[in-house]
């Protein structure tokens, strides 16, 4: 869950930006992808063995 704290007076109020269920789904999806550095290198080299079209979608 992504949240920020906003200070109002002497107390902090938590603002939720993303639904916890959606946040969990995104985290699971990101774990199956290669690192951003690897993806960048594959794109620059046009290397489809690192990630395929289905992996990007």
Chart the SSEs and their pairings.
Blueprint: E1 3-8, E2 11-16, H1 20-31, H2 36-45, H3 53-56
InterPro entries: FH2_Formin (IPR015425)
Protein name: FH2 domain-containing protein
GO molecular function: actin filament binding
Descriptors:
57 residues, alpha+beta, elongated
**Using DSSP, what is the number of strands?**
2
Low-confidence stretches: none
Radius of gyration, in angstroms, nearest whole number: 18 Å
Terminal Cα span: 23 Å
What would you call the shape? Answer: elongated
SSE string: EEHHH
Count of helix runs = 3
Sheet of most strands: 2 strands, antiparallel
Determine the strand fraction and express it as a percent band: 15-25%
Strand order of the largest sheet: 1-2
Domains (count)? 1
Helix content: 40-55%
Average pLDDT, rounded to a whole number, is 80
Based on helices, strands and strand pairing, what is the structural class? Answer: alpha+beta
Walk me through what this model shows.
Helices cover 46% and strands 21% of the residues. A two-stranded antiparallel ribbon has the order 1-2. A hairpin with a 2-residue loop joins strand 1 (3-8) and strand 2 (11-16). The radius of gyration is 18 Å and the shape is elongated. It has three helices and two strands; from the N terminus they run ββααα. The chain is an alpha+beta fold. It has one domain. The longest helix is centred in the middle third of the chain and has 12 residues, at 20-31. One of its GO terms (molecular function) is actin filament binding. This is FH2 domain-containing protein. Residues 1-57 form the FH2 domain.
């Amino acid at each position: 869950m992504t949240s920020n704290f906003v200070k109002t007076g002497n107390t902090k109020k938590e603002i939720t930006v993303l639904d916890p269920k959606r946040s969990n789904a995104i985290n699971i999806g990101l774990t199956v992808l290669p690192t951003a550095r690897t993806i960048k290198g594959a794109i620059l080299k046009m290397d489809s063995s690192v990630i395929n079209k289905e992996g990007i979608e």
